[in-house]
Specification:
By secondary structure, the protein is α+β, with helices and mostly antiparallel strands. The chain has helices at residues 240-259, 288-293, 301-311, 328-345, 350-358, 377-399, 401-415, 422-427, 431-436, 438-444; strands at residues 9-18, 23-33, 40-46, 56-63, 66-72, 75-84, 89-99, 113-115, 120-122, 128-129, 132-133, 139-140, 157-166, 173-175, 179-184, 187-195, 200-203, 206-212, 218-224, 266-272, 277-280, 283-287, 320-321, 419-420.
């Protein structure tokens, strides 16, 4: 009998990273337990690196009961000679190589997958067993790609990854989530459970700081020591890495109290040699730009982006969602969690946060818009992130803190390790509270009744509501993006 508590997707990976050649060679054994409730004639993998030509090469596919396979863009279909019965397992072995491209500048460069002079990043690099939609008939989901925002949707998995590094530079360090062990001078092993995806960063320039949360989660921060400002404009000694580490520790404490504990014993924060930040399970990137701009005060991008990416360990990792179809389920909640962090640690900065982070952009648009509705990053952030925060604030003011936090915690508990939908979020609210907030949903949502969705109630994506300019400050000439 299969273990009912075991993850339905388990990955064992052996990989060699050639830093000089900017290439990766890997073999992976992916074991899948059929949790779909129906026999399956094929298993589908999502292969994110194969969305662009010249990056990913599949070198082999093996499995008992294998009939044939085909790789088309990001979708690898492994067809079976006979169906895989419910609760039965199948192991598929894959071989592949990756040739990385240079990290592009700007907020759409997706620097978590690529290389710079200082860093080689492997985010969303592994083939992953696709999520299965339980519609009738059920089907495997491979999301479409989009230039703006994230569009991923991933099932939980357990990972056992061994990494060997080749480099003429020497003194390389490999950073990843979970339990990390340096097996030899050039080899590391990572073991991690309950991840949406497994991420690595390789660099010869990393230094590390370590702290622990109140409930014993180890927080490791990796940073480029030689590049850090060490004095504020007035000459006062400062440490951006120490500030980021303390922010991460305090954020874990705050969000654990509000939303419940994480399943991880270790979290990694890595300085990213690319714009902004990025969330992954058990590991996040915070941009080198935000470390450079730190001047010793908490009212800074380094504070809010670090707290934001830590919040994604709940809103995205623990509680998953379809980031293309319903991005507000992670991004609006992560942005609002920045405020919840500041209220606890720096309450005097709350007015600054509302002005700096939200109101100066005079945001418009529907909070529940899809990522695919936008071709402009600023407009996407304004609608999903910023108006999402405004919506959550109005709900909190209407219900009161106790009911508001009870709602979010109930949602987190009910949807842990799942891929949640908008209906799941609103179902976690009591019927009385749901009724009481109907006018707020009407103000902010394109589908104002997520528990009883009807096509006639869904307003056109282009018919975005506006906010009175009298309530908001003028938009600045400079327009930094959000994390």
């Amino acid at each position: 009998m299969p273990d009912p508590n075991a993850a339905t997707a388990q990955y064992k990976v052996e990989t060699t990273v050639d830093v000089d050649a900017r290439s990766v060679t890997a073999t992976m054994q992916a074991t899948f337990r059929n949790d779909t409730g129906q026999p399956l004639q094929q298993i589908v993998f999502n292969v994110e690196p194969n969305r662009k030509p010249g990056i990913f090469t599949l070198t082999g596919v093996e499995a008992d009961n294998l009939d044939k396979f085909s790789l088309t863009g990001p979708r690898l279909e492994v067809s079976l000679k006979s169906p895989l019965d419910v609760d039965c397992t199948l192991t598929v072995s894959l071989g592949f190589t990756i040739h990385l491209a240079a990290i592009q500048s700007g907020y759409l460069g997706r620097g978590y997958f690529g290389f710079s002079d200082r860093q080689l990043n492997l985010g969303e690099w592994l083939p992953e067993i696709a999520p299965f939609t339980h519609s009738s008939p059920g089907s495997w989901l491979t999301p479409q790609s989009w230039a703006v925002g994230e569009y991923s949707v991933s099932r939980m998995g357990d990972y056992d990854v061994t990494v060997k590094v080749r480099s003429t530079a020497g003194n390389m360090d490999v950073v990843g989530p979970g339990e990390a062990e340096r097996v030899s001078a050039d080899t590391w092993r990572f073991q991690a459970s309950d991840l949406r995806t497994f991420t690595l960063s390789v660099s010869a320039g990393f230094s590390r700081l370590t702290a622990a949360s109140d409930d014993g989660v180890t927080i490791d921060l990796y940073y480029f020591a030689k590049l850090q400002p060490n004095k504020a404009p007035d000459g006062t000694p400062i440490s951006g890495p120490q500030h980021a580490l303390e922010t991460a520790r305090q954020a874990v404490n705050r969000f654990t109290k509000l939303f419940g504990p994480l399943p991880y014993k270790r979290l990694v924060v890595a300085e990213g040699d690319f714009a902004d930040g990025m969330e992954f399970s058990g590991m996040v990137f915070v941009s080198h730009d935000w470390f450079l701009r730190y001047e010793g005060k908490p009212d800074t991008w380094l504070t809010v982006i670090t707290a934001h990416e830590i919040a994604h360990q709940w809103w995205y990792s623990l509680i998953g969602n379809d980031q293309g179809e319903a991005p507000y389920l992670d991004e609006a909640l992560a942005l609002y969690s920045e405020l919840l962090y500041l209220e606890d640690k720096y309450p005097a900065l709350v007015p600054w946060w509302w002005q700096f982070r939200v109101k100066m952009y005079q945001p418009q648009g529907y909070v529940d818009a899809r990522t695919f509705d936008f071709t402009n990053l600023r407009l996407y952030i304004n609608a999903v992130y910023l108006r999402g925060a405004l919506m959550l604030q109005e709900i909190r003011e209407r219900l009161g803190d106790e009911a508001f936090y009870r709602w979010l915690r109930a949602y987190a508990i009910a949807q842990s390790n799942r891929v949640a939908t908008p209906a799941d979020l609103w179902q976690a609210m009591s019927p009385a509270d749901y009724s009481q907030t109907a006018d707020i949903r009407l103000k902010y949502l394109r589908q104002p009744d997520p528990l009883n969705p009807t096509p006639s109630a869904t307003r056109a994506a282009t018919a975005a509501p506006t906010i009175s300019a009298t309530d908001l400050a003028p938009r600045p000439a400079t327009d930094p993006c959000c994390g």
